[in-house]
């Protein structure tokens, strides 16, 4: 078959049913391409319990989007995927659309698991972010999956849609509301999203442990009352800059509200306490000077680890960190409490 880069039709060892089905789907895909529909048809295949996936058919437009030869589409897709996203409607009192993000690392480690989930559902509906030059592209994948038991082969017949403009607009709107203007740190509104991602990674075994930390500036009201709110803003902005420079790439830091900050730190309770104590030491050693007045700036912190909770949830870990922050305040302030 002219322009065929698959494997099944060239292997007489496969069942007639499989070969006939593949031929029929390829014919339909060719027809869709000839019509010029705004979708990119494909037919992917894989064997059970094997990570390798190949294309029995991929539209020439997919090769053009990826800027690679048609026979290399499977490799290019595998190498360029940055993350995979699913959107699920949550029917509850506060009905909303829930977004699940699976990172490139998780995709590499759990490709078979994700494929098996698609098999159980009978199909796939997800959005892939693909990196490359000069810009990233976003492709929405909608497919149905069929298993040919005699051949031990799964087929995924579907269409890809270029949703780059829509997803870039979504990211732009998120960025606009993401950062606190004063501290340039993520707002509290993004905190639950960050917690959801960490909890999901922890529950799937991709994170050994992580800590949620609440930090509160000691006697912050005294600073505002004595020197005015501009002095308080100076303290918040300076403290945010110091702490942000000290965190690791994999950790998150944000403004919880008022004089409180939050952090998510990968590792167990001892790592969380070390992280918090390092921040506290840097703040204690810094000279906060406002209009020739030297300000004493200290903070207290409560640290909670995911592994400590028998039933892990965002609400539970926040409440545990908050209780420990209260203990730190009650025991004299300027300290971290993690147990």
Can you put this structure into words, describing what you see?
By secondary structure, the protein is of the alpha+beta class. Strands 2-1-7-6-5-3-4 form a 7-stranded antiparallel sheet, with helices on both faces. The protein has a 5-stranded mixed sheet with strand order 9-10-8-13-14, sandwiched between helices. The chain has a two-stranded antiparallel ribbon with strand order 11-12. Helix 8 crosses helix 9 and helix 9 crosses helix 10.
Q: What distance separates the N and C termini?
A: 67 Å
Structural class: alpha+beta
Overall 3D shape: elongated
What topology, given as strand order, has the largest sheet?
2-1-7-6-5-3-4
The helix content is 40-55%
Would you count the extended β strands for me? 14
Number of helices: 11
Arithmetic mean of pLDDT: 89
Give the oligomeric state of the chains in this entry, treating copies of one chain as homo and distinct chains as hetero: single chain
- Helices and strands, in N-to-C order? HEEHHEEHHEEEHHEHHEEHEEEHE
Strand content: 25-35%
The main pleated sheet reads as: 7 strands, antiparallel
Q: Segments where pLDDT lies below 50 for 5+ residues?
A: none
CA radius of gyration is 26 Å
